[in-house]
Amino acid sequence: MKRIIMICLAACLVTGINTSSRLSSPVRKLNDTNLVDDGYIVLDKNTDAEIANYYTGVEGLKGDELKEVLTDIIDTDIGITNSDDVWDWMKITDRDWSISSEVDPENYRFSIDDDYYFYNLYASYNGDPERAVNREIGQTDREHCWPKSYGFKYADDVSSSKFVPFAGTDLHHLMAADKINNELSGHNNHPYGNTDHTASDTKEVEDKDSQGTRTATGWTGMSTLAVNSDVKVYEPADNYKGDVARACLYMATRYQEKENPDSHFPNLNLVDDASLLVTGSGTAYYGELSTFLDWNELDPVDEFEAYRNDLIYNNVQGNRNPYIDHPEWARIVYDANYEGDGAENTSTPGEVVTTKEVVIPTADIVLPSKTTFALGSTFSSDGLSFTYTDEDGVKTVFDTDLVMDDVDTKILGDQVVHYTADNMRFTLYTINVTNQGAVIGTGEGQVTAEEQAKAFSDYVTKLSEDGDSKEIYNQLKKEYKYMDSTSQTAYETGADYSLSVETYTKMEKLYATPWDTTIIPFYQTQYFYYGLIGLAVLITAVSSGIKVKKGRSRKRR
Length: 557
Known about the structure:
Elements: H1 2-15, H2 48-54, H3 63-74, H4 84-93, E1 140-144, E2 150-151, E3 174-178, H5 179-182, E4 203-208, E5 214-222, E6 232-236, H6 238-254, E7 267-270, E8 280-281, E9 283-286, H7 289-298, H8 303-315, H9 322-325, H10 329-334, E10 356-359, E11 365-366, E12 372-374, E13 385-389, E14 395-398, E15 413-421, E16 424-434, E17 439-440, E18 447-448, H11 449-460, H12 470-479, H13 485-494, H14 501-508, H15 526-556
Parallel strand pairs: 2-8, 7-9, 10-16, 12-16
Antiparallel strand pairs: 1-3, 4-5, 5-6, 11-13, 13-14, 15-16, 17-18
Helix pairs in contact: 6-7, 11-13
C-alpha cells in the first residue's frame, strides 16, 4: 500500500493541492470499464496524525469563526457528478464489511458480480447474512439525510426528482438506507425530531429484510420540541440518531454559499423552528438543530461511521466530515449558549465509542417495588438500585434518575430490563406483563387479550392458497402482539404462512391496533354486566324450576 500512498501524494503535487495543510485525494471517477480511472481503491484507514494535519488552523476557534474555517477545509471541487455512479461507490463506502466478500483494491470492478451487502441506515438486519440486503434485493434506497427538496432541486425545475451534483450527490449525507424508513411512511422529507411513543398519532415505521420480516426501527409523529408541537417529524432508532445528526451538521457547514447560492452549492442552515422549512433551491433551512446536538452526544461515532468517512475522503470526494472526526466540535460551532474553550486539534480526534454489555449479578441488585405489570399499564422502576464493580474492584452505585431502555408493557410475557450509562448497557432484572382481564380496543371492537390470543391462533389455521401472503403473516405477528407464549408458539411453529387478504381484512375488524390499547377493570366491562344478567336469569330459572317441582309433588299426593 506504500506505492498507492506515493501515487496519491504525487497527484496532489501535480494538481497543485497544498498537502502541507491537509491531505487530499485525486478526482475519483469511473471509466467505461467500471474501473476507477487510476485503477485502485484505497482501503486503508487514516491515522490520527493525518486527520489532525487535515484540520490545521482550527485551534482555539469557536462559533461562526470555527465554522468558516471548517467550510474552507472541507470545500472541494471533487465529487460525484453522475448519480448513476452513486450506487457503484456505495458498494464500497456503504459496504457491510463484516459479511461481504473481500475487495481486491487494485483490481476491483464495480460491474462484476460482487457478493456484497449494504450496511443500511435505519435497519435492524445489518451484520446478519440471513437477513441483510443489497441493491438487487430491492430493499435499499439512497437516503438524503438532508432532503433534496430543501435546497437541492434545479433552480428552473423545483419539481425535478433528479439528483443535483454536488450537494445532492454528497456521500457524507447520501447513504444506503432501508427503503421503507426512507420513503413515505418514514423520513420522506419530514424534519428529524423526537416523538412521544405513547401518543395516539405516533406510528411505528418498520424495516424489511431479505426474508420479508418487519421490525420497528423508527417513528413518525408530532415533535416533542415545543416550537414544533404541531409538526410531523421522523425519529430513527437511537443507534442511528448520531449518524443523521452528524450528516446534517456537515451539510450546513460544507454548503453555506453566501453569494449566489444555487442547487449545486446551496446556502444550507440548521434551525429549530420548522415553520422556516420551505422547499426550493438555493437558500434552505432544515432541523431540528437542538435535537441534532443532543443526538450527536446520545449516539457516539462507531467504527463503521468512522471508516466510511475515511473511504469517502480517500476515494471519492477528498473531504471529511469534521463532526465524525471531532463530535465535540458540534456544540462549539452550533450551540449559541456554548461558553467553553475553542476547538482543540490533537493527534487523537473524536474517540470512537462502543457500548459495553454488562450483566449485573442478582446479589448486587435491589429490585424495585414492582416487577409485574398489567398489559398497557405504566412501567416504573421505583426503588431499583444496583452496584457495578469494574475490573479494578471499584464499586459504583446507581440509584437515582434511572430511566430504563425499551420497556413495552403492551407486549405480554417476560421482558429483560436494561439500563445504559457511561457507555455501558447493564442487564438487570426481568419483569412480567400479564393480561389480567385487560380489554383491547373500544366499542364493538373490544375483546379480551385472552380472546384475541385464541382467535388469532385459530385464524392462522384457516389457511388459503395465496402464496404471496407471508408478508401479511409477518405484519400480523407484529401488529397483534397481545397473545400469550402458548398461543404464539402454536401458530409460529405449526402454521403455514399462506394467508388470504380477505380473511386478514375480516380479522382486522375484530382487533384494535396496539396504540388503542386500554386497561379496563373487569367490573367496568360489558362482560361483567353480561355475567350479572346471566346470573339473574339463571337464579330466576332455578327458582322457577323449584316452584314447579314442589307444585307437582303436591298434586301427586
